[in-house]
From TrEMBL:
Keywords: Glycosidase, Hydrolase. The lineage of its organism: Bacteria, Bacillati, Actinomycetota, Actinomycetes, Micrococcales. Belongs to the glycosyl hydrolase 2 family. GO terms for molecular function: beta-galactosidase activity. It catalyses: Hydrolysis of terminal non-reducing beta-D-galactose residues in beta-D-galactosides. Residues 1-29 are annotated as: Disordered. This is beta-galactosidase. Its EC number is 3.2.1.23. Residues 710-990 form the Beta galactosidase small chain/ domain. It holds the Pfam family Glyco_hydro_2_N. SMART domains: Bgal_small_N (SM01038).
């Protein structure tokens, strides 16, 4: 038996999908039905409730919204959100879904306003209902629909009176359509986008198709608007088209030509286009632009562009996918402010207003159809709707509704059929339908592995080495020569890459460099924009970001939902800051010959809006400043060096840097001045003067009465264990090689081999212990402590030598040279190499830290473009990155000195002298500070579970392993791997 919500037929009783002008474009009357509705949830679709039932005594629930989140973050009276990535949370048996199928009955009443126009037609429009629904007016069933992220219109003409009307909507959580809406996100149900009544005058502009192009050889824009009144009587309608700003006018269906400023994401120029009939006027925001593919290169307005993009799911930590216009604007502005120029609307059409914002602020969009059937993959794709003719009509309906809804947006440069939906007969059917409606945009679908049907070669998570081969056009061939030749002539896009889960992504700069090198590479979309952590409160009322399993779901995918560049509350993660630095339109990079390479990476604009300001600085101390007189044409580059008359100071206690920043010189002409003068468009620096080396220590340790030792502010017991430093008890001091694994460390690179974190624990790195092998005072007065550090059950270990020596004329200082030598067989990499120091400090979190080194934010060996040399300050609390799932975070690299200011007014200064890892010597150490241990960090499931333990934990590392992107892609590349190697570090501790 197949019930209505299990039927595989297109929506029924609805208005035929149309190229509807965007909301607000017409002056015709509308009435919003958003607000408080009556609601009851039933366990089965067969609710037994009459459609004429008003539900006056039912619960109240806000539309738009998801019923699971109706009382978030405190209560879940209507079932909980549940997170699945790939797998269906019900038996795979299409089109059937379980009997246990939460079903919401919604009721609202409305009256037409007194001034509602006479005549014409009235449509009821739903922008998005998840997943299947039936609509009844005044007890009479009118329509059934689906396509959660697509609009549905129901014609109410002839049914509306002056009186009150009862609207009843029954929504099921599961339906046959759940099989094609298996995106990696929370399952959330209900009327989650707006509901409106829309008046359509007779002779209205129901269907408006905009064809706008730009000829870059002549500078002429072309425009044709096809207008039709389709709701009542299908057919063209006589309409006038004017572009007031251009002073041109034509009849609908005729082509207009005029010199224009083209639209691009860099300069999102829009023109008002006014289309009018006798009864309706519609004002559209039109961008003139042409997308083309020539010689395997993707062009906008005749120029090659690069997509520096992100995958965006709609998400709000309290409202789920019911995102507000404010959130959408916040997303767009955050993207623009971080130099993101493209969005893939993974994996469904977003709220239409988001696309208005992309047009207006300038983002290239791949608009993706609401289609994913990933849950068939584990079963070898058997039964996949995408390869089943019974589904053709429904799938073509879906994708054409997408095109019709969104085609007027200049920002959309490609259509995407969907995501992870396998292959089969419905792929060409959808492609043909899309091309028939809109031949002006290329079609994308990554799942068409041989690119037989699509226009661009798309992949996900290919590593940068393979991308490099594809860029050169020398990737391994497809078996079929014709398919291979066709694909080899296509531009290449990474529809997903640089999986941003937790601490990461590492290696973004390697991809970006490849994109720049090869015209075939169109760029890509980082996975993904935001962590979908839903806010909930724990038993004590503390709010936290919940991921899979946190609502008691028994079948879920845990932390994998937290893989974005933004934390759930939209705090930019260090990964987003790195993205901004790597994607910078004016890239400034140090070169081996001591110069800076400045590249204008805009496709269309010169850099006259930017000022290149330089400073010569020692730490935070400014020594000289200036401005470089430089304007680069689009796509050009030049080399700059410090002015020849620049006077460099003698080496002092901090490195001297020449830092060049390209900054916005004047505000852009957008209404909301999102781009303020001073906004950074790119930055780079040169190290001009290394700090003076630390003077040799040359003091003598003293022996204490109890057999222990003293060296300046450091006291040791007779075994050579450090017991106090700077007047604080020491709870531990030893070589360390482990870190609280990141989400990337926990997974094998591209699901092959074993995860780094596993290798580390099998080598015992998470359980290291130290054995003292000897303690002696050397002839020159130093305390030399020999030790061996190793974990259980392994012969591998580290031989360490700590050499402590007081500093002549500096009674508050002690010098330490650490030598670490790996012994035995080591896994192919280790997490870190350095020393761990735990000091007694009740107010560890409030401890201030001022450091000279890279900053102000964390950086890792493969995520380091954002960090710049200088002097920075924080508290230990602020030093932490609160990743949604706690893990290693906060490393500051290149640290030559750090001053800790304790709550009691005392302080400790740490200086780093020479540091070598293997044969390589480097400036400074990597510093990490925490008010809790790595073990506690590793154990915590959520950041709010971490509580200071009364100690200050310091990692003074020579190096740390990179972060990579193994959570769903390549691991740490060879250029950022840390192998067990001999290490030497000189450190100096001074009590303040
Ligand atoms: C890829 C999906 O397309 C995306 O939606 C997301 O789930 C991502 O993985 C992981 O976060 S598919 C995967 C098989 C590469």
């Amino acid at each position: 038996m197949t019930t209505a919500h299990e039927s595989v037929t297109p929506p029924d009783g609805v208005v035929a999908p149309r190229f509807r002008p965007p909301a607000g474009a017409s002056g015709s009357a509308t009435l919003s039905l958003d607000g408080e509705w009556r609601f009851r949830l039933f366990p089965h679709p067969d609710t037994g409730v009459d459609r004429a039932e008003r539900g006056d005594d039912w619960d109240r629930l806000t539309v738009p919204g998801h019923w699971q989140l109706a009382k978030a973050p405190h209560a879940w009276p209507y079932g909980v959100p549940a997170y699945n990535n790939v797998l269906y949370p019900f038996p795979v048996d299409p089109p059937h879904v379980p009997d246990d199928n939460p079903t919401g009955e919604y009721r609202t009443t409305f009256r037409l306003p007194a001034d509602w126009p006479e005549g014409g037609r009235t449509l009821l429009r739903f922008e998005g209902v998840d997943s299947w629904f039936q609509v009844a007016l005044d007890g009479e069933p009118l329509a059934t629909s689906h396509g959660s992220r697509l609009p549905t219109e129901v014609d109410l003409t002839g049914r509306l009176t002056d009186g009150e009307h009862l609207l009843a909507v029954r929504v099921t959580q599961w339906s046959a359509m759940s099989y094609v809406e298996d995106q990696d996100q929370w399952w959330l149900s209900g009327i989650f986008r707006s509901v409106t009544l829309e008046h359509r005058p007779d002779g209205a502009l129901d269907d408006v198709r905009v064809h706008a192009g730009y000829d870059h050889t002549t500078g002429v824009g072309t425009l044709r608007v096809d207008a039709a009144t389709v709701v009542a009587t299908a057919g063209a309608v006589p309409a006038r088209v004017t572009v007031p700003e251009l002073g041109v006018e034509a009849a609908a269906g005729e082509e207009l030509r005029a010199p224009v400023e083209p639209w691009s994401a860099e300069q999102p120029r829009l023109y008002d286009v006014v289309v009018s009939t006798d009864t309706e006027t519609v004002t559209l925001s039109v961008g003139f632009r042409t997308v083309s593919i020539e010689d395997g290169v993707f062009l906008v307005n005749g120029r090659p562009i690069k997509l520096r993009g992100v995958n965006r799911h709609e998400f709000d930590p309290l409202r789920g996918r019911a995102v507000t216009p404010e959130r959408m604007l916040e997303d767009v502005l955050l993207m623009k402010r971080h130099h993101i120029n493209a969005v893939r609307t993974s994996h469904y059409p977003p709220h239409p207003h988001f696309l208005d914002l992309c047009d207006r602020y300038g983002l290239y969009v791949i608009d993706e159809n609401d289609l994913e059937t990933h849950g068939f993959q584990p079963g070898g794709w058997v039964g996949n709707p995408v390869d089943d003719p019974a589904w053709t009509e429904v799938l073509v309906d879906r994708v054409t509704r997408t095109v019709r809804r969104d085609a007027h947006h200049a920002s959309i440069i490609m259509w995407s059929l969907g995501n992870e939906a396998g292959g089969g007969c419905n792929i060409p059917a959808m492609v043909d339908a899309v091309r028939a409606l809109d031949p002006s945009r290329p079609v994308h679908y990554e799942g068409d592995f041989s690119s037989d049907h699509v226009d661009v070669y798309s992949r996900m998570y290919a590593d940068s080495e393979e991308v490099e081969l594809i860029g050169q056009g020398i990737e391994p061939p497809l078996e079929r020569a014709d398919a291979d030749a066709r694909r080899r002539a296509m531009p290449f896009v990474l529809c997903e890459y640089a999986h941003a889960m937790g601490n990461g992504p590492g290696g973004l700069a390697d991809y970006d460099a490849a994109f720049d090198r090869h015209p075939r590479l169109l760029g890509g979309f980082i996975w993904e924009w935001i962590d979908h952590g839903l806010t909930r409160t724990d038993a004590d009322g503390n709010p936290f970001s919940a991921y899979g399993g946190d609502f008691g779901e028994r079948f879920h995918d845990g932390t994998f939902i937290a893989d974005g560049l933004l934390l759930p509350d939209r705090t930019p993660s260090p990964g987003l800051l790195e993205t901004a630095a790597v994607f910078a339109p004016v890239r400034i990079d140090a070169q081996a010959d001591g110069t800076l390479l400045v590249r204008n990476r805009y496709a269309f604009r010169d850099t006259s809006h930017a000022e290149l300001r330089w400073t010569l600085h020692r730490g935070a101390e400014e020594l000289a400043t200036g401005v470089l007189d430089l304007v680069l044409e689009a796509g050009t580059e030049t080399v700059v060096r410090p002015p020849s008359d620049l006077v460099l100071p003698e080496p002092g206690d901090a490195p001297v840097w020449w830092t060049v920043r390209a900054v916005q010189a004047k505000a852009e002409a957008l209404e909301e001045a999102w781009l303020e003068p001073g906004f950074q468009l790119g930055a780079g620096q040169l190290l001009l003067v290394e700090p003076a080396s630390l003077p040799a220590p040359a003091g003598r340790v003293s022996t204490e009465a109890d057999g222990g030792f003293r060296a300046g502010p450091a006291r040791f017991d007779r075994r050579g264990d450090l017991r106090t430093l700077a007047g604080r008890a020491v709870h531990g001091f030893r070589v360390d090689a482990w870190r609280a694994p990141t989400d990337n460390d926990r997974r094998p690179a591209r699901w092959r081999g074993s995860a780094d974190a596993e290798k580390w624990s099998s080598a015992g790195l998470n359980l290291l212990a130290e054995r003292k092998d000897g303690v002696a005072v050397t002839a020159d007065g130093a305390l030399a402590v020999e030790a061996r550090i190793a974990g259980p059950a392994t012969r591998a270990g580290f031989a360490a030598r700590y050499r402590w020596q007081p500093v002549t004329d500096a009674p508050d200082a002690v010098d330490l040279v650490v030598d670490i030598r790996p012994e035995g067989r080591w896994p192919d990499n280790v997490a870190r190499l350095g020393v761990l120091l735990a000091l007694d400090e009740p107010a560890a979190a409030e401890t201030g830290v001022r450091w000279t080194g890279l900053g102000p934010d964390e950086s890792y060996a493969d995520s380091r473009k954002a960090a710049l040399g200088g002097s920075w300050q924080h508290t230990v609390a602020d030093w932490q990155t609160r990743y949604t799932h706690p893990q290693e975070n906060g490393a500051r690299r290149g640290v030559t000195s750090a001053v800790l200011s304790f709550a009691d007014g005392t302080g400790l200064r740490i200086d780093a002298g020479e540091v070598t890892v293997g044969a390589r010597s480097q400036l400074g150490i990597e510093l990490s500070l925490r008010p809790w241990s790595d073990e506690a960090l590793d154990r915590a499931a959520h950041p709010h579970e971490l509580v200071p333990d009364g100690r200050l934990w310091l990692h003074l590392d020579a190096a740390q392993h990179g972060v990579g992107s193994a959570a769903c892609g390549p691991g740490v590349l060879p250029n950022a791997q840390l192998h067990a190697a001999p290490v030497r570090m000189r450190l100096r501790f001074t009590t303040l």
